[in-house]
């Protein structure tokens, strides 16, 4: 069984970007790989809405997509058959691969 220190090490040292949001779409955890990927400093993403990482052309209706996921969560890969982009801190777009996973902790 993995202990807390081991899980933290996996999260912190993953080469893949991992972002955790709460039920209102605010970022509560972002590992170093995701911060580097989107050009944010350590801890700078915490408390921000996930839409800060969404390109401007998708941002206006992303909250509907996010709420749909929260209302009917399922683990899934996003964007199959189409290109997805994220938005860096400077506003530039970058290609991303996204998968969604859901878990509930203390409500």
Walk me through what this model shows.
- The chain is of the alpha+beta class and 107 residues long.
- The chain has a single domain, classed as Beta-Lactamase.
- The protein has 3 helices and 6 strands, in the order αββααββββ.
- The chain has helices spanning 4-13, 32-38, 59-71, and strands at 19-21, 27-30, 76-78, 84-87, 93-96, 98-100.
- Strands 1-2 form a two-stranded antiparallel ribbon.
- The protein is globular and about 45 Å long.
Number of helices: 3
Total individual domains: 1
Radius of gyration: 14 Å
Please outline the major beta sheet: 2 strands, antiparallel
Mean of all residue-level pLDDT scores: 85
Q: In whole angstroms, how far apart are the ends?
A: 24 Å
Helix content: 25-40%
Strand order of the largest sheet: 1-2
State the CATH class.
Alpha Beta
In the CATH hierarchy, what is the superfamily? PAS domain
Q: What's the architecture in CATH terms? A: 2-Layer Sandwich
What fold name goes in the CATH topology slot? Beta-Lactamase
Protein structure class: alpha+beta
Strand content: 15-25%
What's the β-strand tally?
Answer: 6
């Amino acid at each position: 069984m993995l202990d807390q220190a081991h899980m933290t090490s996996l999260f912190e040292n993953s080469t893949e970007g991992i972002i955790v949001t709460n039920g209102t779409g605010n970022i509560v955890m972002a590992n170093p790989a995701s911060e580097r990927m989107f050009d944010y400093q350590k801890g700078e993403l915490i408390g921000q809405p996930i839409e800060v990482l969404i390109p401007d052309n998708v941002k206006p209706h992303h909250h509907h997509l996010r709420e749909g996921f929260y209302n009917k969560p399922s683990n899934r890969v996003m964007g199959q058959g189409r290109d997805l982009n994220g938005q860096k801190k400077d506003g530039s777009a970058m290609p991303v691969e996204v998968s969604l996973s859901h878990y509930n902790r203390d409500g």
